[in-house]
Design brief:
122 residues; mainly alpha; 56% helix; 6 helices
């Protein structure tokens, strides 16, 4: 996911959108997302759900929401802008802790198994 995001011509969340934000809440995140194209909104939503699933396993993989936010914040938004990296990380941590499931297009809501064990996938 990180490689894919870094290969995009521009970050999914333009860093300028984050300027001036001091506190993240549902309303602030909603305001940020409304400024994005529909495809970017859906991608951010799917990534938030994916990262939340990874964070659920933090006891095993050590990837807490804060660690994931540090890793993905710069890629999703700041892209080298040191002044916005902390802000981008806080946004990503917020959307990991409050996954954006409602913004995922209906056909993309299929939850794939993490492994073949216990599934009927052959």
């Amino acid at each position: 996911v990180k490689k894919y995001l870094s290969l995009l011509p521009a970050p999914l969340i333009p860093p300028g959108i984050l300027v001036g934000i001091t506190v993240f809440s549902d309303d602030v995140v909603e305001h940020v997302l409304r400024q994005l194209p529909d495809t970017a909104q859906a991608q951010v939503a799917m990534i938030s759900v994916h990262l939340a699933r990874i964070a659920e396993q933090s006891a095993v993989n050590k990837m807490t929401p804060k660690n994931l936010a540090t890793v993905f914040g710069a890629t999703l938004s700041a892209r080298g802008d040191m002044t916005l990296m902390g802000l981008a990380a806080r946004l990503v941590e917020y959307i990991i802790l409050h996954p954006l499931r409602a913004r995922i297009p209906p056909l993309a809501r299929v939850r794939l198994p993490l492994s073949r064990e216990g599934s009927n996938v052959s």
